[in-house]
């Protein structure tokens, strides 16, 4: 009997619905052609637009349904002119991270030979690494509750043993699975600032403890400033990088820059039970409704979702289709034949997604 997986969908704000629609169409195409699984989609309200209309950014019923779903697919959220009374942004994605304890933020960075971008890859080199960002504490711990007076402002950085141990085990398990898939050497690098801050020395110490549980994998350290330099000079040397919330927030945008922009940057926030998959970019209301938004980060996030579901449920068909969808996007980007405006081309949203669809059909027919 084919297993059906329920996907909670948040269409988002601005360009969110425009990039969600073709992504869902691709997922339905894959599921329809598979005998190993089926997908059922449930669209839920949330976001800045919903807040402007109702005064709620993430309704309790949406949270309840999302909690019961097998995975959550979330599009770009937020609008610059819609804020909470304290001036902070409407961020349901962060609320979901906190509500579901989604401690592992996954930010893959991939650049293939032939792909246009800010770096010229040396012959035989490709970029393929994953940044794992702790997503529930760090410098984001006091979000919205920092202390501000006329003379100073303070925020609290929090690192706990409980979350750090889960984060590091997740990172080592990821490095092992990447090595088994032929995508990395099995190496995890702890990125910190342990030479200055006691909190990061604590973070590094826990990393070293967990590393002893994985004697078959390499464990390394790097300071965050040096890592930023090396991500530009030799990004092909990395495999899995694990770091604190704010450092990961910054380095993930640098990783997106290596790929050519946020339009190619997918992400996932993963906990022990639930997971949210979403593009790294914003809602871009300035181009909403024009049909020119780049859908690839959203599609790549959906590919990550299929892979995660396949791992969680030991379903090879899901994992296979996750790889096929990712590779189809990579093939379109590397060919340079159907690039969106942000990548230097002229293709619209539907054309870019259609190119991915054609690659999938051609590959299945071959």
TrEMBL record:
<dbReference type="GO" id="GO:0051287">
    <property type="term" value="F:NAD binding"/>
</dbReference>
<dbReference type="GO" id="GO:0009098">
    <property type="term" value="P:L-leucine biosynthetic process"/>
</dbReference>
<keyword id="KW-0560">Oxidoreductase</keyword>
<dbReference type="Pfam" id="PF00180">
    <property type="entry name" value="Iso_dh"/>
</dbReference>
<keyword id="KW-0520">NAD</keyword>
<protein>
    <recommendedName>
        <fullName>3-isopropylmalate dehydrogenase</fullName>
        <ecNumber>1.1.1.85</ecNumber>
    </recommendedName>
</protein>
<comment type="subunit">
    <text>Homodimer.</text>
</comment>
<dbReference type="GO" id="GO:0003862">
    <property type="term" value="F:3-isopropylmalate dehydrogenase activity"/>
</dbReference>
<feature type="domain" description="Isopropylmalate dehydrogenase-like">
    <location>
        <begin position="6"/>
        <end position="356"/>
    </location>
</feature>
<comment type="similarity">
    <text>Belongs to the isocitrate and isopropylmalate dehydrogenases family. LeuB type 1 subfamily.</text>
</comment>
<dbReference type="InterPro" id="IPR024084">
    <property type="entry name" value="IsoPropMal-DH-like_dom"/>
</dbReference>
<keyword id="KW-0464">Manganese</keyword>
<dbReference type="InterPro" id="IPR050501">
    <property type="entry name" value="ICDH/IPMDH"/>
</dbReference>
<keyword id="KW-0460">Magnesium</keyword>
<keyword id="KW-0432">Leucine biosynthesis</keyword>
<dbReference type="GO" id="GO:0000287">
    <property type="term" value="F:magnesium ion binding"/>
</dbReference>
<keyword id="KW-0028">Amino-acid biosynthesis</keyword>
<keyword id="KW-0479">Metal-binding</keyword>
<keyword id="KW-0100">Branched-chain amino acid biosynthesis</keyword>
<dbReference type="InterPro" id="IPR019818">
    <property type="entry name" value="IsoCit/isopropylmalate_DH_CS"/>
</dbReference>
């Amino acid at each position: 009997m084919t297993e059906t997986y329920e996907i909670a969908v948040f269409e988002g704000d601005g360009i969110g619905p425009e990039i969600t629609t073709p992504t869902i169409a691709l997922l339905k195409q894959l599921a329809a052609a598979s005998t190993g699984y089926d997908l059922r989609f449930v669209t839920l309200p949330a976001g800045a637009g919903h807040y402007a209309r109702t005064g709620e950014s993430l309704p309790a019923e949406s949270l309840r349904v999302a909690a019961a779903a097998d995975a959550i697919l979330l599009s770009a959220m937020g609008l610059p002119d819609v804020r909470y009374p304290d001036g902070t942004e409407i961020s349901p994605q962060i609320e979901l991270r906190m509500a579901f304890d989604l401690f592992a933020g996954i930010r893959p960075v991939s650049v293939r030979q032939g792909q246009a971008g800010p770096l010229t890859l040396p012959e035989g080199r490709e970029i393929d690494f994953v940044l794992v960002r702790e997503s529930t504490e760090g410098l984001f711990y006091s979000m919205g509750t920092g202390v501000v007076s006329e003379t100073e402002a303070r925020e609290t950085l929090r690192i706990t043993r409980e979350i750090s141990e889960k984060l590091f085990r997740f990172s080592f398990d990821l490095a092992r699975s990447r090595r088994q898939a032929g995508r990395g050497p099995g190496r995890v690098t702890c990125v910190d600032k342990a030479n200055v801050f006691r909190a990061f020395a604590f973070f590094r110490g826990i990393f070293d403890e967990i590393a002893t549980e994985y004697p078959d994998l390499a464990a390394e350290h790097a300071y965050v400033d040096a890592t930023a330099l090396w991500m530009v000079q030799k990004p092909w040397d990395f495999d899995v990088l694990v770091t604190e919330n704010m450092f990961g927030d910054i380095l993930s945008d640098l990783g997106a820059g290596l790929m050519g922009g946020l339009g190619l940057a997918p992400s996932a926030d993963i906990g022990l039970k639930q997971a949210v998959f979403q593009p790294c970019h914003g809602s871009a209301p300035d181009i909403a409704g024009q049909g020119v938004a780049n859908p690839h980060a959203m599609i790549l996030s959906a590919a990550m979702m299929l892979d995660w579901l396949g791992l969680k449920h030991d379903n090879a068909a899901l994992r296979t289709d996750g790889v096929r969808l990712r590779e189809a996007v990579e093939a379109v980007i590397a060919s340079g034949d159907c690039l969106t405006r942000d990548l230097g081309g002229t293709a619209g949203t539907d054309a870019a997604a259609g190119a991915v669809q054609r690659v999938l059909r051609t590959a299945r027919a071959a």
